[in-house]
Amino acid sequence: MKNGEIREGSSIGSTASPEQDLVERSKLLGEGQTSTGCSWDKCLICMGIFGGAVGFLFLVLVTAILVAMFTLPFPRHASCSVNITFPQRCSGVRDALIHQMHMWSGMNNCESGGQKCLYEVTSVKGNIVSGTHTTPKFRFMDYITFKFGHEEGQCIVEAFSTSAFWFAWLDFGTNYCNIHNLVEGMDISNYTEQTDNTICTQYSTANCDKY
């Protein structure tokens, strides 16, 4: 081989200029290929398959949720209605309830677990007491109302708790426990509760020591 001669096929001493390389890449793109040699058609097909799979899984998930919502015996929104009967006048029951909500307004009672804390009285109007309860860990808020009425020497309380979040459906019995924990904390004996799963989300499995 003569000095300075370049063997055919060798990559040494390539004479392709940057402008020529750019032209070649443009030709590839014009022919439906990426700069790595992948066909645009194949890429679009792959993207379509992936998008279809994601859409199908989303549809299955939504369908499963809707089927569960219309077959399980729970309210359509996370909430709980409880009728509570106390063997005494409503004035004493109402005052005890408000006092208990104030006692559990801070975080102190939840330092070792549970959710018997972060209650707030928002209004007291006649025979209706309204308030909120916020879960200590995730800070989800629920609205609570208590309506007091006398009947045959007893105090009948219509209690209701509902999630402030529109998308909430299951709540692990939290809305029931919002009410039950307060009533239990009032330390009034011989009261009775009346509710069920159809008007109180996950009532039958609620664990009020935890929630």
From TrEMBL:
Keyword terms of this UniProt record: Membrane, Transmembrane, Transmembrane helix
Protein's UniProt name: Uncharacterized protein
Organism placement in taxonomy: Eukaryota, Metazoa, Ecdysozoa, Arthropoda, Crustacea
Transmembrane segments: 44-72
Source organism of the structure: Darwinula stevensoni
Domain of life: Eukaryota
